[in-house]
Design a protein that fits this description.
With 210 residues, the protein is an alpha+beta fold. The protein has helices at residues 15-25, 57-64, 86-96, 101-108, 150-153, 192-209, and strands at residues 2-10, 29-39, 42-50, 71-77, 117-122, 128-131, 159-163, 166-172, 178-184.
């Protein structure tokens, strides 16, 4: 089973190697490591691993708890293929058909940041402009999540939000009265590194579309 593990551990020499050794002793094959954060004496890294069998998130957490100072922030299945460049593929498709730039971004951006789905909303009235095919059917008629005010989903700056089972990311589209909202139900809240990545790609998309 291919999993993404988000772990926080003391940022000291040899700590990353210790995490890798423990994963190896548990039979996990590390496919990719992404550094998300290095500050305040701790590191936050994402590991994509091939884990034997189909373990539950709690099982993985328990097995990793042997490492002193380790905090497992999230364990969830991943669609990411290590070694690929989905950012470049997205931008290539946008450049090939600029008239569909934002629709293409909404369709493809979930794979950039491990979101399950994305929608584009009008910043003014929250009207649903476009949705990725994975978006659920419990979106209300105005395009927002049931029980959530549109104003909460369309802040002036990129933001991480939460609503019920959803972990949300909201990105205002530069130069357009649009917001892109991404969501996932598995895994931790979006990290600021994920917000920065999606937002930088969106800035390029908006330049191509203008």
């Amino acid at each position: 089973m291919i999993l993404r593990l988000r772990v926080s551990f003391p940022d000291r020499p040899g700590a990353l190697g210790q995490v890798a050794r423990v994963l190896g002793t548990l039979g996990a094959d590390i496919l990719q490591v992404t550094v998300l954060e290095r500050e305040t004496g701790r590191a936050v890294d994402d590991f994509i691993v091939s884990w034997p069998g189909t373990p539950s998130a709690e099982t993985v957490r328990d097995r990793l708890s042997v490492i002193p100072g380790m905090r497992v922030e999230g364990v969830w299945p991943t669609r990411e293929t290590p070694g690929t460049a989905p950012d470049y593929d997205l931008l290539r498709h946008v450049a090939a058909e600029p008239s569909r730039a934002y629709a293409t971004f909404v369709d493809a951006v979930p794979d950039l940041v491990e979101a399950e789905w994305a929608v584009a909303l009008s910043s003014g009235d929250g009207h649903l402009v476009h949705r990725s095919w994975q978006a659920p059917q419990d979106l209300d008629e105005s395009g927002g999540l049931v029980g959530v005010k549109i104003g909460d989903l369309t802040p002036l700056r990129p933001a991480v939000l939460a609503s019920g089972p959803y972990r949300l990311m909201s990105l205002p589209v530069p130069g357009a009265s649009l917001h892109v909202v991404l969501a996932r139900t598995e895994g931790p809240p979006f990290h600021r590194a994920e917000v920065d990545r999606a937002n930088r790609v969106l800035e390029i998309v908006s330049t191509i579309a203008s």
